[in-house]
Design brief:
The chain has about 220 residues and is mainly α. Helix content is about 70%, strand content about 0%. The chain has a two-stranded antiparallel sheet with strand order 1-2. It is globular.
Length: about 220
């Protein structure tokens, strides 16, 4: 039973595979419906602005804003169990390399005009406090944060609920800022998040396999 894939991971993987198929299907009534729903969700996220959330999303979209949090997280990992962390660190690094490399490669092949540069759509959007962003893109690279948060939650386990919630909120704010600022379509955010969650889970399984093979007994 320990090797059984958790239900949330299975659902996330299935959703990811379904959304990936969205990029490969021909024009049809179904694809048109999903495209309209995708734009409606983006409009909802973009037009529900306030002074408070403008400030939050502006900062949460910045890598540098989170530097103190990254330092705290690294310190917590080291003090939690130095030996376990030394064995886990390589899998975290490999996850980041594969996840970020995969997202960047996907963007290089499937990059397109972002919403704020789409002449037929940008008039309906509000340019957020983060600016218009880059001209071309696809899957948000910051979605790797979701997989990292999931990987760390599996590492810490259920005893550290507050820390797991904190890393989850970090990833959620970081990712949601992409829709709030109209830098990515919701479908792209969901696909990038699904890919990262899957890679995060596989990284943890590889870590567990490594422990069983080298430190069993």
């Amino acid at each position: 039973m320990r090797d059984k894939i958790p239900f949330p991971v299975l659902i996330t993987t299935l959703v990811f595979l379904g959304l990936m198929g969205r990029f490969m299907v021909a024009e049809s009534h179904i694809s048109s419906y999903f495209e309209r729903a995708d734009k409606s969700l983006l409009l909802f996220a973009n037009q529900n602005h306030s002074g408070f959330w403008d400030a939050v999303m502006k900062e949460s979209a910045s890598f540098w804003f989170w530097i103190p949090f990254y330092c705290f997280l690294l310190l917590r990992l080291v003090t939690y169990d130095p030996v376990r962390f030394s064995r886990m660190a390589i899998f975290i690094i490999v996850y980041l390399m594969v996840s970020l490399g995969g997202l960047l490669s996907f963007n290089a092949f499937f990059g397109h005009l972002r919403p704020l540069y789409d002449h037929e759509f940008r008039s309906s959007l509000r340019i957020g406090v983060g600016g218009a962003g880059a001209v071309y893109g696809c899957l948000p690279v910051c979605s790797a944060a979701a997989g990292l948060a999931f990987l760390l939650a599996l590492f810490f386990g259920r005893r550290y609920v507050s820390l797991n919630v904190l890393t989850g909120l970090w990833a959620l704010l970081y990712i949601y800022s992409r829709a709030y600022n109209s830098w990515n379509y919701p479908r792209e955010i969901l696909i990038g998040t699904g890919l990262s969650l899957t890679l995060g889970y596989l990284s943890f399984r590889a870590y567990r396999f490594y422990l069983r093979k080298n430190y069993a007994g």
